[in-house]
């Protein structure tokens, strides 16, 4: 009885003659390569972030000779009467990528709300912070004028706002994880975060990534950034020096640890 199945045809690279065909490794490899080749599809790349510079602002920095003043000085003592100029930073802002953050920062600059406020923290080899909000302008803290009427920054809860990295010196970023505004200010229903940081280098700051919003870069004045990073943030009084010397004389190990914080 004839089988209902169709006869099996030989493979394309095999001969149908009765003589056996000798296959070499080369012919087998080539055939398998040709028959298994698939169309190459492009890899799905992450979307390109729009870091075009839409706005430029500048900030002038000065060194205040009375910054290391006595803690017992009268409250009426002005923070700084005759500052020494350090230089100007020109910042480029990513307005297409982060319109709310950039708009707030621009308004803070153009309204002089940052004027006569302090760079309140410096982390050598990493970054410095400015724009801390508090209740007293006298101590170099930012006070937002009610007339400024800044909008709420919803970009602080948008995951796309955290994609840029703190990968080099001169990165300008909105402080979130590093923010140290006065707690009483944060409890205000009209609170708006305007504290920012600038990386000083020489290396990246990966600990800031995914927690703070990069919204600009230093276009001019990296030498000023370097100068700011080298300014000491603590200068002990003469009495502290004397006590430290006495502690060292008696072999107190804390004396050496305390000196490591001087002139940093």
Automatic annotation (TrEMBL):
Pfam families named among the record's database cross-references: Pro_isomerase (PF00160)
This enzyme's EC code(s): 5.2.1.8
Keyword Isomerase: yes
UniProt key word Ribosomal protein: no
Matching PROSITE patterns: CSA_PPIASE_2
Ranges where the PPIase cyclophilin-type domain occurs: 76-233
Any one GO CC term of the record: chloroplast
Record field: catalytic activity: [protein]-peptidylproline (omega=180) = [protein]-peptidylproline (omega=0)
Source domain of life: Eukaryota
Gene3D superfamilies xref list: Cyclophilin-like
Family, similarity comment: Belongs to the cyclophilin-type PPIase family.
General function of this protein: PPIases accelerate the folding of proteins. It catalyzes the cis-trans isomerization of proline imidic peptide bonds in oligopeptides.
Protein name: Peptidyl-prolyl cis-trans isomerase
Organism encoding this protein: Gossypium klotzschianum
